[in-house]
Amino acid sequence: MIAASSAIETEIITLCPACSQPGALALSGGRDYVCGLPGEWSFWQCSACRSLWPNPRPVERALALLYPSNYVFTRTDENSDSAFPSGLAGSVKLAVLQRQYSYESLETGADHPLGRWFGRIFGKLLRHKAGYAVRYLPGQAHGKLLDVGCGTGAFIHWMQRLGCEVEGIEVDPVAAQRAVDRGLTVHRGRVEDIALQPNYFDAITMTHVAEHFFQPRKIFEILQRSLKPGGLLVSVSPNPSGISRRIFQNKWYALDPPRHLFLPTAAAYHRMLEPLGFAVSTRTSMRRFHWDFKESASIAMTGRVGAIDDSRMLRLLTRISGGLLSFLPGVGEEVICYARKR
Residue 179 to residues 30, 74, 151, 159, 167: CA-CA distances in angstroms? Predict the structure, then answer.
């Protein structure tokens, strides 16, 4: 087994964090191509649910070392889909969100007549693409919303404008302060260290957060208790069975050691959440295919991220291939888990 960074204390984890089934070595030679932390990492794969996790894995008390000063993803609003959209594409999105997700009066804010018409006619085809802007929550679920890993609060600020009572949880103090400066209620720290009220929230969302949990089952138990009966939990995370992972293996951008501690498959979400009393549905999405393919190819070709230009030709290629691949089950770049508390 290839050793992890000597600067980060590690522990041996041979059982799957999702279902406690044994795993085996699947990938070796993983490196931190995003922040440049030294060391190599091996990933094991569960024999049952096919999830991935680093083994050896960083210990919890090493958490601060995993996020150096050049890790800035929690501090940007880029690609947050939080701004009120305008123009042709924005009007399409607003029309789809009103017609398919029941966000009343959104379509009246659309400033492009052709976009409104297009959204009405092709709403069902565009349902999943537009739905990410509200994390696939129906408008009827208006109420108390908690976003775990809220960053600078861009998403919950947008949902507040749509009528939700919002709160966030964020570990990064800089990002949390920016959210507070927006006038948002944000709990600073880890989920397990915050006293959440039981049976309080109507919905809880997590976007690329579950993969950072040391103890995912424990976190989901805490969140389950904080949801009202009938409440919704939505988690979006990288798909370890997706097409980019299959192509690029240990050069896959979303592998991101040592920060990604557990990469759950769709099956893993079922195994974690159904015993907690959730009705679970899952699917995969090609939403991030362009970005993941571009950055994974950059790592494979140059050993670093950001080395490939974001050209129109590349976007056309990934859009066409992503559209074709979307018809294949389970190969999307993200797993989307949609769970309702019984």
Answer: 33, 11, 7, 13, 10
pLDDT tens digits, one per residue of 18-70: 999 999 999 999 999 999 999 999 999 999 999 999 999 999 999 999 999 99
Positive/negative CA dihedral, 74, 78, 81, 85: positive
Whole-number pLDDT of residue 2: 37
Structure tokens at 154: 């861009």
Distance of CA 216 to the CA centre of its chain: 14
Q: Please write the tens of the pLDDT for every residue from 128-143.
A: 999 999 999 999 767 9
| Contact predicate 17/215, CB 8 Å | yes
In the chain, where do the E strands start and end? Answer: 10-11, 23-30, 41-46, 52-54, 57-58, 144-148, 165-170, 185-188, 201-207, 227-238, 278-285, 334-341
Residue 82 phi/psi, 5-degree rounding, is: -100, -20
| pLDDT at residue 3, as a whole number | 47
> How far is 27 from 52, CA to CA, in rounded Å?
9
The CA–CA distances, whole Å, from 265 to 147, 236, 306 equal 21, 11, 27
C-alpha span between 99 and 112 (Å, rounded): 16
Number of DSSP helices (H) and strands (E) in the chain, helices first:
10, 12
String of DSSP letters for 55-74:
SSEE-GGGGGGGS-TT--GG
Q: Is the pLDDT of residue 80 over 90?
A: no
Report the distance separating Cα 253 and Cα 226, nearest Å: 33
- Residue 82 clears pLDDT 60, i.e. is over it: no
| Whole-number average pLDDT of the chain | 93
Mean local confidence (pLDDT), 276-296: 97
Give the position of tokens 């009405």: 120
Alpha carbon distances (Å) from 330 to 17, 144, 182: 21, 32, 38
pLDDT at res. 109: 75
Q: Is 185 left (phi over 0), alpha (psi -120 to 50) or beta?
A: beta
What is the rounded distance in angstroms from the CA atom of residue 254 to the CA atom of residue 299?
11
